[in-house]
Design a protein that fits this description.
Length: about 170
């Protein structure tokens, strides 16, 4: 574990989780004008970065940054935070600018990963299904983006639900 219990308790006391697991979790404490800030290890650090480190039980690698899939700087929901380098972040931002009308939910991303893991869909099909570019689908598959979201986070519609693709599949 990266932080002790007292730190975890102090951290989560400053977070609004009332929207539920898939919603953005606004940081309720101080900020640096853009991102939430949290005092730990003797300095103020970005709250969404700490959230990622808590959820993943490890530090973010040197030179990498915590990026928001939801584009909401004050959000500290760890499933909305992914670890990437500056280039990833800029590519992601440019995709979002171009595809601003597309919003993938964590559950959709988890479902994409589920389909890939079971060999039910190629990235090209997923790109078409979800209206994202093939490179975005490939980056989801490779874990370059949204790596914090695992297929286990998919919430099926039916209890054993594994909805077939409109086309393709087995
Ligand atoms: Zn969010």
């Amino acid at each position: 574990m990266v932080y002790n219990d007292a730190t975890l308790k102090r951290f989560w006391s400053k977070v609004d989780k009332s929207g539920g697991t898939e919603a953005c979790w606004p940081w309720l404490s101080g900020n640096d004008g853009k991102y939430g800030t949290f005092w730990v290890d003797g300095r103020y650090q970005k709250a969404h970065r700490i959230s990622f480190q808590i959820a993943n039980a490890r530090r973010i690698s040197d030179g990498l940054m915590a990026c928001h899939s939801c584009d909401n700087p004050i959000c500290v929901n760890p499933s909305h935070v992914w670890e990437g380098n500056n280039a990833d972040n800029m590519i992601d931002a440019s995709h979002k600018g171009r595809l601003a009308h597309i919003k993938l939910s964590p559950s959709q991303i988890a479902y994409m990963k589920l389909l890939i893991a079971h060999g039910k869909a190629q990235t090209g099909e997923l790109a078409q299904l979800y209206g994202v570019s093939k490179s975005t689908a490939r980056r989801i598959k490779s874990g370059h983006i949204w790596s914090a979201i695992t297929q286990a986070e998919y919430r099926p519609v039916s209890p054993d639900g594994f909805p077939a693709l409109a086309k393709g599949g087995q």
